[in-house]
Amino acid sequence: MGAAPSATHHRELVLDGTAESEACGRGISWARQALTDWGLIEYGLDALLITAELLSNSARHAGGIRSLGLSLEGDLLHIAVTDPSPDPPRLREHRPDSIGGHGVFLIDRLAQHWGTRPNGGGKTVWATLPIHR
Predict the structure, then answer these.
(1) With contact defined as beta carbons under 8 Å apart, do 83 and 122 qualify?
(2) CA distance linking residue 61 with residue 19, whole number of Å
């Protein structure tokens, strides 16, 4: 049985000090399990892709991953990844024929909203998307 539409859920996974490749894998598995527990896995495939992109961007470009958070409020899923870099990701001109460089473009296309906020000496990059049931 899935979560009630008005239910609020929150989970946080601390990944500070975990090797980047291990942190990405653990984060994606953890997010998949949270969506499964909340009865949303069949509706959350875009959420897993956004999670993977946020994690890999932090690992590759921002000095590592501090934490991953998921919050479900009604039919909105909020994904947040915190890293040690204060520099925000930038949406660049999308070049479909390039190898790599598609992460922020995909997040921009799939998420209802996304952005960054300062967090300690680093930042949190977040994305919100509706879960249509």
Answers:
(1) yes
(2) 14
